[in-house]
Amino acid sequence: MSRVCQLTGKKTAVGNNVSHSMRHTKRRFYPNLFWRNIKDPQTGMIVRLRLSAKAIKTLKKKGIM
């Protein structure tokens, strides 16, 4: 399973660890993902989505539609 938000498309980013001596080594920045059951108000179906924390907050504020 890939680490991608199914609503916003956020995915793993790549960067560097930087030590005190300024040595750079590669690292990954993972999105903050959670499994959530979302109910479609029109059809009444429940869909299981892998959403980022930002997407969950947006859904709570604006709703699905």
Write a structural description.
This protein has one helix at residues 53-62, and strands at 13-18, 24-29, 33-39, 46-52. It is of the alpha+beta class. It has a single domain (13-62), classed as Ribosomal protein L28/L24 (Ribosomal Protein L24e, Chain: T). Strand 3 (33-39) and strand 4 (46-52) form a beta hairpin. 8% of the residues are buried. The model has no long low-confidence stretch (mean pLDDT 95).
Count of discrete structural domains:
1
Estimated helix fraction: 10-25%
Tally of DSSP β-strands: 4
Q: What is the element string, with H for helices and E for strands? A: EEEEH
Could you give me the name of the CATH homologous superfamily?
Ribosomal protein L28/L24
- Mean pLDDT reading: 95
N-end to C-end Cα span: 27 Å
Q: What is the global morphology?
A: elongated
CATH-defined fold name: Ribosomal Protein L24e, Chain: T
Major sheet strand order? 1-2
Task: Please describe the biggest sheet, giving its number of strands, its sense, and whether it closes into a barrel.
Answer: 2 strands, antiparallel
Secondary-structure arrangement, i.e. CATH architecture: Roll
Strand content: 35-45%
Task: Give me the Rg, rounded.
Answer: 17 Å
Q: Which structural class matches the secondary elements?
A: alpha+beta
CATH level-1 class: Mainly Beta
Q: In DSSP terms, counting alpha (H) and pi (I) runs of 4 or more, how many helices?
A: 1
Low-confidence stretches: none
